[in-house]
Amino acid sequence: MNSKEVIAARVAEELKDGDIVNAGIGIPTLVPNFIPADLDVFLHSENGILGVGPTPEDDKIDENIINAGKKPVTVKEGASYFDSASSFAMIRGGHVDVSILGALEVDETGQISNWAVPGKPVLGVGGAMDLLEGSKKIFITITHTTKDGQPKIVKQNKYPLTSLRKADLIITDLAVFKVTDNGLVLSEIFPNSSMQEVKEKTEGAFYIDEKLKST
Amino acid sequence: MNSKEVIAARVAEELKDGDIVNAGIGIPTLVPNFIPADLDVFLHSENGILGVGPTPEDDKIDENIINAGKKPVTVKEGASYFDSASSFAMIRGGHVDVSILGALEVDETGQISNWAVPGKPVLGVGGAMDLLEGSKKIFITITHTTKDGQPKIVKQNKYPLTSLRKADLIITDLAVFKVTDNGLVLSEIFPNSSMQEVKEKTEGAFYIDEKLKST
Amino acid sequence: MDKTIVMTKAVSMIKSGDTLMVGGFGLVGCPLKLIKGMEDTSLKDLTIISNNLGEPGKGLGRLVLQKKVHKGIGSFFTSNPDVVSAYQNKELDIDLMPQGTLAESIRAGGAGIGGFYVKTGYGTKIAEGEEVRYIKGEPYLFQESIRANVALIKAHKADRFGNLIYLKSARNFNPIMATAADLVIAEVDEIVEVGDLSPEEIVTPHLFVDYLVLAGGD
Amino acid sequence: MDKTIVMTKAVSMIKSGDTLMVGGFGLVGCPLKLIKGMEDTSLKDLTIISNNLGEPGKGLGRLVLQKKVHKGIGSFFTSNPDVVSAYQNKELDIDLMPQGTLAESIRAGGAGIGGFYVKTGYGTKIAEGEEVRYIKGEPYLFQESIRANVALIKAHKADRFGNLIYLKSARNFNPIMATAADLVIAEVDEIVEVGDLSPEEIVTPHLFVDYLVLAGGD
Question: Which residue did the predictor score with more confidence, B1 or B199?
Answer without folding.
Answer: B199
